[in-house]
Amino acid sequence: MAHESDSAPESVDFVREKVLADLAAGTFGGRVLTRFPPEPNGYLHIGHAKSICLNFGIASEFGGACNLRFDDTNPETEDHEYIDAIIADVRWLGFEPAGEPKYASDYFEQLYQWAEHLIERGLAYVDDQDADTISAQRGGFGQPGVESPHRDRSVEENLDLFRQMRDGAFADGARVLRAKIDMQAENMQLRDPVLYRIRRVPHVRTGEGWVIYPTYDWAHGQSDAIEGITQSICTLEFADHRPLYDWCLSHLDLPYEKPEQTEFARLNLTHTVTSKRKLKALVDDGNVDGWDDPRMPTLRGMRRRGYPASAIRAFMDQIGVAKNNSIVDIELLESFVRDELNDTSLRRMAVVKPLKVVITNWPDGQVVMVEAPNHQQKPETGTRQVPFSGELWIEQDDFELVPPPKYYRLSPGNEVRLRAGFYITANDVVTDDDGTVVEVRCTYDPESEGGQTPDGRKVKATMHWVSARHAVDATVHLYDRLVDSEGELNPASRTVCQAKLEPALADVAPGQVIQFERLGYFAVDPDDRRLFHRTVGLRDEWANIKKRQK
Ligand code: ATP
Ligand code: MG
Fold first, then answer.
1. What's the pTM value of the predicted model, to 2 decimals?
2. CATH number corresponding to 348-470
3. Burial of 26: CB neighbours in 10 Å, binned 0-12, 13-18, 19+
């Protein structure tokens, strides 16, 4: 398993404290078995990554294991495509589930038997009322619940009806099985919750084998118990389900010690949708190219965008786990991505919004190979040869016909350094009919090869460039936030550029991330070598946010 540490960290959060306490008390005989329980109705997103890092992290830190268990109890929305993707994405994030993936549907027979067991003990009954009636009778806070007229059926009648439910004798929605707990309970979850409903929908794994399906509350804790889970770690919204979780387990003969549910705050990030339902809508409505669109906060999207899995794990370590919901700045995650890419990615030159430069005193047809470092801070990564010639591409932003104050880049009469190349001075421009500059005519200093002059004179700007004759054409996608701070879709979240790349960028391995000098980090698309996605920019926006917060 990646991301291992030999001992528990020094300052531990409340979830790990609980594990330590259980270990000290011998509650589970020294076992630690956690689980990550996704519903296979969408792709994993950055919120899931938090749960994965927590569950798998605890397992590895305490010498335990973590199951991957699909909570596949809603046949309408579940699909094999999601199952396969979730398995792959957990591995990509760097974690190896214990044994084969598990499925709640593997336990349907045991869950059914346990439901009969509740009926036999007078703790569950078949209700003939429809969902709306049952819901209306639940009451509310400070409002009493109303008992179903079917609540006091005999064990025999309940068993008979429940078996007929399983055998398909009734229409969808005609009957449900409910736990018989307390319709006046203060905790609404305990007001005779539904355990089984009838649904004639083929299931992704059991096909037409079942027409009744357990609810989350009946499937979840019992699946934990079947697997011998020790700490069942879930998000805060399940805190008020915990008494029900415990109630169900307390009435069954369990194969292991009773698992314990612990809740933590879910991860919320600014500018980030972390609801599968909403992400699916973005895909279905065509607002993004798919679940793996680089703008999506899915693991697939982040991977295509060039986020290293290790940066996501480091981010999760940094933010830790909390008992209260909060919102984390997306810039913090980006700073982890940037830090890692700064270390690992090679430097190259690319021009994403090209403007032609012609060097009028350059010897006709001459090409000079200049040497440029692969990584300025890491000489051990060596250098590369970059062709320089009399026609170059520079960024449109790096030239101004009428420069504003303190503009030191190229403008008429001004001299700049071309990185690893020569000094050039702009003398003239060619414009199109609209007056837009389409070409800058410059002269160069032949004594300035490598970006230095014999007289040591200084220029204030160093710019990147690409030799026009040698340039590789590519498409570059620049990204802005997918949603604004109100969660509204940003119509300008993607800018498509026709870029010019230095020749060394022609054969970058799929998925690799490169620093385009002065522009940011860019990932080669895994399916298209001529498509680059901007992973993150160079500027550490998180540092600015921190300064503002102080
Ligand atoms: P969604 O709202 O996106 O559908 P979910 O909780 O319904 O999320 P599941 O597939 O049930 O999705 O989630 C699997 C696990 O991931 C659960 O244990 C859930 O608590 C956890 N999880 C989901 N979203 C987050 C989040 N934002 N932060 C932390 N954990 C999360
Ligand atoms: Mg869920």
1. 0.95
2. 2.40.240.10
3. exposed
Please list the active-site residues.
Answer: 39, 266, 276
**Phi-psi category of 255—alpha, beta or left, where left has phi over 0 and alpha has psi -120 to 50?**
alpha
Q: Is 14 helix (H, G, I), strand (E, B) or coil?
A: helix
Tell me how far apart the alpha carbons of residues 480 and 488 are, in angstroms, rounded to a whole number: 13
Strands 494-501 and 513-516: what pairing?
Answer: unpaired
Are 467 and 388 contacting, i.e. CB atoms less than 8 angstroms apart? yes
Q: How far apart are CA 239 and CA 456, in angstroms?
A: 69
- pLDDT tens per residue across span 360-411: 999 999 999 999 999 999 999 999 999 999 999 999 999 999 999 999 999 9
- The answer to whether domain 348-470 and domain 472-549 are alike in fold is yes
CB-CB neighbours of 296 under 10 Å: 25
What is the separation, in whole angstroms, between the first and last Cα of the chain?
A: 38
Q: Residue 375 has what DSSP assignment?
A: -
Please compute the mean of the pLDDT values over residues 468-480 and round it to a whole number: 98
What residues does ligand 1 touch, defined as CB less than 6 Å away? Answer: 37-39, 47-48, 50-51, 71, 234-235, 266-267, 274-277
Contact 469, 391 (CB under 8 A): yes
* CATH fold group of domain 472-549: Ribosomal Protein L25; Chain P (2.40.240)
| CA 152 from centre of chain | 48
Task: Tell me phi and psi for residue 157, to 5 degrees.
Answer: -65, -40
Q: If you measure from the C-alpha of residue 46 to the centroid of ligand 1, how many angstroms do you get, rounded to a whole number?
A: 10
Residues with a beta carbon under 5 angstroms from ion ligand 2: 39
Would you kindly state where each structural domain of the chain is located, as residue ranges? 14-264, 348-470, 472-549
Instruction: Decide yes or no: CATH 3.40.50.620 for domain 14-264.
Output: yes
